Amino acid sequence: MKRILIVRASAIGDVVFASPFAAALKATYPDAHVAWLVEPGIHTLLEADPCIDELILWPKGEWKKLWQAKRFDAFFSAVRAFSRELKSRQFDTAIDMQSLLKSGVLTWLSGAPRRIGLGSREGSQHLMTEVVAKGGDAGRISSEYLYLAQQLGLDTGEFLPRLCVASETATRVDALLAERGLARGGYAVFAPFTTRPQKHWFEDAWVALGPQVRGGLGLTPVILGGPAEREAAERMAAAIPGAVSLAGQTGLADAAALIERAGLLVGVDTGLTHMGIAFSTPTVALFGSTRPYLDTGRANAKVIWLGLECSPCRRRPTCDGAFTCLRDIRPDRVMAVAREVLSR
């Protein structure tokens, strides 16, 4: 392998899980050119990684607008132009780690003579020259990507999520911390928001946890999230004495740097929580309807998952909105685990 394209365009958490793959490629093929195809916005998580030589941004939003406007000629023209751009880089190997039809098409558009799919489905398997079935220890973080790396004979090392913070991002975030009167290691990131309600810990539980973290651990709760969660985050912060809400006020790279500098992270199954493990920040992950892993690979990161009979239900809850799998996780248990990870 001399010119390699990784295709893992989204989502945030999955990109974090896949992040050690580029390092494994570089450890095995140090002179190879490694490119990563990713959606705009998410690419900021990968920009500072020294094992990635090039980021290629998939103009998904542009394509979607053209398709929805029924401007099919313009749509296919944009697809052909993107394919020409990919082919000009002369990749000899393209690796689809997303497994879907859309990622399979992007991999195929690269023109790479060797196209490897990880558990390819939705018809994308027909666009690959090789398909590696998903495998590995499903309880371990990043397991399917580790398994793929092993099947390809890569030097995997510890193979845990890894993210890097660019110097300009670090400078910007340090200024933000100073402005808010926060010190590195002196605050706890709360990551309460994600895409589906059955993955959320309840707001009253966060409000109960906040004063315990501040009073018992000496850490200021800092709530992170996107623009859509800003109102909820500010409401929570107002109910927790001394808490700070930065939801909707940072980009993804800045949020990552805030997590890297945190003394603790507590979060649900969301990309921000997985970043805590990538940075080796003491992390407590709260899982219920989903359980992407139980083994974090790090002594200072633990998962709380109750293992109810109905869990994980993923996208098909059977509890009529009770979400007992998360409701029964009590703040005192979270505090006990927080103390455990802080002691490591």
Explained architecture:
There is one protein chain. This protein folds into two domains: 3-151, Rossmann fold, CATH 3.40.50; 167-342, Glycogen Phosphorylase B (Rossmann fold, 3-Layer(aba) Sandwich). The protein is built from 13 helices and twelve strands. The strands form two sheets. Strands 3-2-1-4-5-6 form a six-stranded parallel beta sheet, sandwiched between helices. A six-stranded parallel beta sheet has the order 9-8-7-10-11-12, sandwiched between helices. The chain has helices at 12-18, 20-28, 60-68, 72-87, 101-109, 143-151, 167-179, 203-217, 230-239, 252-260, 271-278, 324-327, 331-342; strands spanning 3-7, 33-38, 54-57, 93-96, 114-118, 130-132, 187-191, 220-223, 244-245, 264-268, 283-287, 301-305. The two termini are 39 Å apart. The longest helix is centred in the N-terminal third of the chain and has 16 residues, at 72-87. It has 344 residues and is of the alpha/beta class.
Strand order of the largest sheet: 3-2-1-4-5-6
The shape is globular
β-strand amount: 15-25%
* CATH class category of the largest domain: Alpha Beta
Backbone CA Rg: 21 Å
Structural class: alpha/beta
Estimate the mean pLDDT confidence. 97
Helix segment tally = 13
What is the oligomer described by this structure?
Answer: single chain
Q: H/E series, N to C? A: EHHEEHHEHEEHHEHEHEHEHEEHH
Terminal residue distance: 39 Å
What's the count of strands?
12
Question: How many domains in all?
Answer: 2
Helix content: 25-40%
CATH fold assignment of the largest domain: Rossmann fold
Name of the CATH architecture of the largest domain? 3-Layer(aba) Sandwich
